[in-house]
Amino acid sequence: MLSMREQTARTIVHSLAGLVWILTGAITLITIWTLYQWRFFTQEGVVLYRGTPVVSAVFNLLLVIVLGASIGWGLWRKKNWARVLGIIFCALVVLDVLVFMFAHPLSWSLLLIIILALVGIWALGLKAEVKALFQ
Known about the structure:
Radius of gyration: 18 Å
Shape: globular
Distance between the termini: 19 Å
Number of strands: 2
Number of domains: 1
Helix content: over 70%
Largest sheet: 2 strands, antiparallel
Structural class: mainly alpha
């Protein structure tokens, strides 16, 4: 029988894994919609005449899908490498949003992203019960 702390830690980890999968799907859909709006898709497939932005967007999309699915799966299976990658990517998100905020006005969505990333760092890196699951 699991203690209350272990059950709470498992719930946190499974919730974070699910959140990673949901965000990966959302980013995928938003990227595909954006490419469609920019008229990069035709009936024949992806139009590459606009050059690097399309190639970069498709590459980034594939990277997000692979990394998001891998990290989500690793967290669900309680793999320590996924915990470490989750912390690293949460920290990178915080840095990225902070840099973006200097170029653009502060919006509530950016603040929400920072809060979510900090919660991810706290849950995966600082919460002792969660760290114990990955040992």
